[in-house]
Each structure stands twice: as C-alpha cells, then as structure tokens.
User: Fold these one by one.
Assistant:
Number 1:
Amino acid sequence: MTNDKKDNFIPALSFDFLTSLYDPVVALTTREKEFKRELVRQIDLRPMRRILDLACGTATVTIALKQSCPQAEVFGLDGDAKILHRARQKIEKSNAKIALSVGLSNEMPYPDNYFDTVVSSLFFHHLTPDSKRKTLAEIRRVLKAGGTLHVADWGKPANLLMKVASLPVQWLDGATTKDSYQEKLPELMAEAGFKGIVETAAFDTVFGTIRLH
Ligand SMILES: C[S@@+](CC[C@H](N)C(=O)[O-])C[C@H]1O[C@@H](n2cnc3c(N)ncnc32)[C@H](O)[C@@H]1O
C-alpha cells in the first residue's frame, strides 16, 4: 500500500489481526441491530434503484439493503480485501446477489451519476478531514442528481457519560475520530454541496453516541 493509500485507510477495528472479531464486537457494543435497522428503514427503497454501501465491511447493512429491496442492484465497496472475504461468506449464506469491489472511498471504481443512494455505516470516523472532503466529493460524483446519502457514525456525545464512553474509540481509531466526535461531518457535507442535511436519529451505546444523517 502506498503512503497516500495508508492515509486514507484504517482497518475495521484499527488493527488487521482484530478483523475476525469485528462482527461480535460490533454486535455487543453498538446496539447494531437497532441502529442499522433504522438506517435501512429511513431509505426510500423504491424498485430498481442502484444502491452503494460504502465501506461495507462484513456486509451486514449491504445484505439488509438487498433483503429490504430485492429489486435493487446493491453494491458494496471496501478498502480491505480481507474483510470482503468475510462479507462474501455472509452474502453466500443469505443467497443475496450483491456486487462487491475492493477500492478506496476517494477513488471509487464507478462511473459518474451511477447511484440513487449511497449508504455508509461506522465509516467516516476512519478518515482524516482531508479524506472526508475527498470522499464526500467522490460520493457526489457517483450519485445521480437528486440522489441521497445516508450516514450512521460516531457523533457528538449526547452527555458526559457518552463523552467518557467514546474515549476507547478515540484511542483505538486515533486522530481521525476527533472531528467526528466534534460533529464536523454535517459541516463537511454542506461544504461538499449536499443539501437538506438533517440528523434523523441518535443511539447512545457502550462507546458513545451514534448519529444518523
Ligand atoms: C468500522 S468498519 C464498518 C463496516 C460496516 N460498514 C459496518 O457498519 O459494520 C469500517 C470499514 O471501513 C473500511 N475502510 C476504511 N477506510 C476506507 C477507505 N478509505 N475506503 C474504503 N473503505 C475503507 C474498513 O476496511 C472497514 O471495513
């Protein structure tokens, strides 16, 4: 991996050797079922839409999207070939038809104006402010006019307890999480030209507050 790529990529649990623990850790600590169900519920899954799960990891959301809207073409992109191997195993078990690709969020392997919806869960906190900007510009490029972006990620802690709870993630994922916990993402979305940015739900968890936009 080049230095530029390293700057734009942190594995799911920060270290490669922890990737195999990703699903159980997330299930136990993030109220995963609740917040991912809500993320998918909020998307207008009309027939024949093309949907991207950006940084799909082990494809939990990707599979839920396909199951909620079988007519849609569902794509998953992730920078980590190893985690996509786990995603493929889960997809096979679910019998879903999903197109997975390895790639980075700031140079996606898709044409302009391709997707109706881009979804991303627990991802933006992996990116430096500069990579967040590049990724948001890239999302705008691949989204059709009038397309929508749905993000679930760590956000401003809802209270003092959530602030303390968020410290391990800040320690584990490092400096990139700082602006996420400072709730900078909506500002960056506006800067990238997104309109109608709204927070739609918040979930207090063992590691801080997850916010949906
Ligand atoms: C915490 S995991 C979230 C996975 C999944 N979306 C979920 O909600 O369970 C973050 C994912 O982002 C991926 N990732 C990190 N940086 C990336 C980048 N620049 N481009 C694409 N994927 C990236 C990691 O490989 C990892 O699978």
Note: The beta strands are 50-54, 73-78, 98-102, 115-121, 143-154, 201-205, 208-212.
Number 2:
Amino acid sequence: MVEGVLITSLDSFGRGVGHINNKVIFIKNALPSEIVDVKITQDKKSYSEGEVLKYQKISSKRIKSPCPYFSICGGCHLLFYNYSDTLDFKIQKVHDLFLKNKINNPPINLIPNLSNFYYRNKLSLKIINSQIGFYEEKTHSLVAIEECLIANKTINAVLKNYQLLNLENGNLTIRTNSNNEVLLIIETPESNYNIDLSKLKEKVKLVGIVYNNKTIYGQDFYYERLHNFLFKISYNSFFQVNNFITEELFKLIENHIEPNSQVLDLYSGVGTLSIVASLKAQMVYSVEIVQNAILNGIFNAKINKRNNIKFLLGDVSKIVSNLSFAFDTLILDPPRKGLDKNTINFIKNKLPTKIIYISCNLNTLIRDLKLLEEVYTLKEYKILDMFSYTYHLESFCVLNLN
Ligand SMILES: C[S@@+](CC[C@H](N)C(=O)[O-])C[C@H]1O[C@@H](n2cnc3c(N)ncnc32)[C@H](O)[C@@H]1O
C-alpha cells in the first residue's frame, strides 16, 4: 500500500492521476484534490495503475453514486459526479486532447442530454449461469444487476423479467423505441428455447425475438419516430442509442446543409442523416455496408416521401474508388475505428467544400482531422452528450475546404 497520494487531475478515461516517486499512477474512482491510500494493481515501466484502499481527503465535488453497482460495473465511469461536472470533464478532455495533438480548434461547445438518466434505447447484457448483468471491467466475471440507471424504463422492465426467457447462458440485446416497444436479440449456445412468451407479453410490448439469428416471435425489426420521420430499424441495423441527442444531431444536420447541395453520406446506417439532409439538398447519396440497413434506408426514404436519395450497398473503403457523381458536401459518421487510408485519399482527391464529421471516438477523430488539416479547417466543434455518465462522447465537426 502507498499512503497519501494526491490526485491532481482526471485522465481521459475518468481515472484519477497521481504520482508516486515521480511515476504517474492512474487510480479508478479518485477525484482531483482527493488524497488516497492506494493498492498498486499494475506496475509498468512508465506508469502504474491502482485502486483506492482509503480516502484520506474527499473532494467537495464527489457525490454518493446513485448506482449501487458503480464501483464494480465498468459501464458508467463518471457516476461519482453531478451531471454538470461530467460535462466539464468532457469539455476538458476534448480541450486537452486537441492541445496535445495541436489541433487548431474553434470554441468547444456542448449539447447536454436533458434526460441524462434512463436515456439508452438499447442495452447488451450477459447471461451467465442464469444471472444477468455486465462483465466487470477488464474481466470475465459477471456483475449481476437488477436495474441500469442509464437504460430506459422499458429496458429495465425486461431486465426485471428476464427470468421469463429461461436462458442459462448467452448474450441478450434489448432494443426499444419511444412507444415502449421491445425487440429482443438473443445469442446463445443453447439450441432449444423455452421462453414464457405469454407472461413476457403481459409485462412488455414485445414486437419480436431474434434467437441465434432466427426470428422466433413477431418480426426482426421495429420502428422509431424522430424529428417527424418514421424509421424502420432491423435487428442488426445501427441506430443511435440516445433519442434526445439524436434529435439534436438531426437539427444540426438540417442547419448545416446548404439548399440545393449535392451530399454524399458515408456510413449511413438506416438512412437517418441522409433523410434529414434530403430536406434541403438536391440529391443525397448514401453508402452503408449492412444489407438490412440499406434495405431499411430505401424503405425509410419511401415512407417519409424523400425521393432525392440514392442508396449504395458496400464497404466505403472500396466503393469510394468507383464513385463518379459530383458532390459538394460530405457527411461522415464512421464506426469507432474512423476513416481508412483509401477514404482519406478519396476526400483529398475530391475536395468537397464542406465536411460534416460525426464521431463517437475522439482518438480516431483527432487522427483523421490531422490527416485532413492541410486541406480542411475545423470551423465548428460540438460535443453531443450521447453517452451521459460515461467517458465517451459524440463529436459534431464542420470542416471547410481551405
Ligand atoms: C456510427 S454508425 C452511423 C449510422 C448513421 N449515420 C446514423 O446516424 O444512424 C456507423 C455505420 O457505418 C456502417 N459501417 C461500418 N463499417 C462500414 C464500412 N466499411 N463501409 C460502409 N459502412 C460501414 C455501420 O454498419 C453503421 O451503420
């Protein structure tokens, strides 16, 4: 044990940063200005990691976490703070990373999540030996939970009744919409199912169950209504997890598309941003790799009466080499790994006037901004608090051609 370590800041994962004999140590659940006694759990050449054994001095900003699983479940990293302090943390995190990477940035604005508890519309859980929960951080041991404070009430109703699924082991993904409807996706080594459907249907509005990729009840999709649009979403199509923030994202997209522009929307999912952009653009081209998502997109354009969108199925990295149409505005919303080399080269070759880059991974976003900085200037940057109480954040960037 090392006694009396002063915490000077938080790192980008929300861990307290201290020093022992001039070597940096990262300590979970330790806040700036706190003094803690520490057990070292990892000792590497240039840094250590540790756990708090005792708090000698407690920060005035620390709150009693409202979640009973906070210290063991790896999900919410910042539930030691009031909401407004979590937002300050996120602004500081972006500021520090921009500074470290010499990103020439405009002011960092933030759009808060007005419903910052019970906000997630999707949750993936583990079931092990008939218990349900999440893996403890960096382990395969289950933290069994009865409630999740960041999942919406419909998900929590499923959680409360998960025993009706009669599953011993597997993964359960619960997807829901604003109408409290539920789609369950189960992956399990168990080949026979014994779900108590009639009781489950009494507890929640079940629209479907997909069991090891087969629809065994209802349908394999659900609908969501947002921003006056209706979206069909298949069980394996992406949809943003936070409806309030997604509406804010839609408003930003609508405000930033110029009338009569030609838009290319890469990584387009079920066509959400394309459909919003199509309100002002002359033509929108959408590229997405998941077949169901493209089919959803085509359907969604039709039911929302948008007839100026063309959908292309395929891998962005490959498709971009064959795109022959002209476009002046590029929407990018890639998965966590960000853009690949081909796509960066494509952008540098086509040089659209405006790029709207939406990202859920600050590190790959910064990497890509650096690769584009000789030709593009970051004009606008916003944090969208899509993943409240976790260290994750969604970025909304507008880049203009130099
Ligand atoms: C962060 S989501 C964004 C989806 C959409 N823009 C939205 O807001 O709902 C990223 C999307 O990229 C798709 N994707 C991942 N890798 C891809 C690739 N190499 N080529 C095309 N699409 C890809 C995923 O299936 C997912 O739908």
Note: The chain has three domains: 2-62, 88-115+226-401, 122-223.
